[in-house]
Amino acid sequence: ARFFEKSQSVFRAELLPLLEGISRDDWASANPGAVSAEHLASTDGWFMLSVVRHGEWNLPLCELAPRSCEMVASRPEISRCSVSNVNLMRLAPGAQLKPHFGNAPRLSAHLSLSVPEPEAAHLRVGAEVATGK
Fold first, then answer.
1. Which of 3, 9, 26, 104 is the most exposed, having the fewest neighbouring CB atoms within 10 Å of its CB?
2. Contacts by 75-84 with C-beta closer than 8 Å and gap 24+?
3. pLDDT in tens, 2-33
4. H runs (alpha helix) in the chain
5. Tens digits of per-residue pLDDT, 73-94?
6. Is the dihedral of CA 7, 11, 16, 19 positive or negative?
């Protein structure tokens, strides 16, 4: 997690413009299979873009964000795992995700690229709640 925290400025500079500049529908039509089909929020509230899914890299995304992909690939827990998943997610202001859990074993890390209202953003894991600060 510290690696991603220390590298946040690189990820933010390269990935945030992609998330803000491409609509979900445009990305899905240009890159089928790279946009989430999970129903954790309304379609307008949730946008998940795959970087690597089950060990397969999203090459069009990596062409647009080469440094981010290189940094993710440098992590052995990702590059050495044939079922690794790394995703970019955008949650619209005021949107909420339904409570959910992943399959085990699973290592999950969340890195915020932009939190316009940090006091209003919360992440709950079990009984623990963290704000976007």
1. 104
2. 75/3, 77/107, 78/52, 81/55, 82/54, 82/55, 83/54, 83/55, 84/52, 84/54, 84/55
3. 898 899 999 999 988 887 777 767 766 666 55
4. 2-6, 8-21, 24-30, 59-64, 66-73, 76-79
5. 999 988 888 888 888 877 777 7
6. negative
Residue 82: Cβ within 10 Å count: 7
Could you tell me if residue 71 is left (phi over 0), alpha (psi between -120 and 50 degrees) or otherwise beta?
alpha
Q: Is 57 exposed, middle or buried (0-12, 13-18, 19+ CB in 10 A)?
A: middle
The token pair at 132 is 């976007």
pTM here is: 0.78
Q: Which helix (H) or strand (E) holds 91?
A: strand 85-91
* Chain-centroid distance, C-alpha 121: 16
Structure tokens belonging to residue 94:
């005021």
| Structure token digits, residue 89 | 């997610």
Within 10 A of 10 (CB to CB), how many other CB atoms are there?
A: 15
